[in-house]
Design goal:
The mean pLDDT is 91. Helix 1 runs antiparallel to helix 3. With 158 residues, this protein is mainly α. The protein starts with 7 loop residues before the first helix and ends in a 5-residue tail after the last helix. It is built from 6 helices and no strands. It has one domain.
Amino acid sequence: MPNKLGFGPAWLALAAALALHVTDEALTGFLGVYNPTVAAIRARLPWLPIPVFRFDIWLALLIAGILLLAALAPAAFHGNRYLRRAGYTLAALMLSNGGSHILGTIAGRTVAAVRFPRPMPGFWSSPLLIAASLWLLFSLRTSAHAAAAVRQSVPPAN
């Protein structure tokens, strides 16, 4: 029996996990690590377009992104094929994001010049972000197989 909810529950879970992650980062001083890391990377790779953020702009952009994810949830519940493609990219980016916070905590630094006391800002919510990303990947895959099975079982209209 196909999943009638598409990948909507997993999509919403990832949006909620990202909201929690942004809150974690905001409360633990993430930009105090991010901006110096960007400055160090730009010093070595000046052509790389990585932005430096003020807190208010950073937070506003992330809130807007989370609200956009929530607004797209109805399409995820319907299994929208274009959103499905975006979902794979989103899940991969959030897996990378969560993993980088965990690796940063283990290393105690981002780049050689930027060290910080452990844990890295955003660390505590990273496992939830990773779990929600994996659930979205799983849901995208299983709902795609279910949708394909339904398409194959429906006779063509004459």
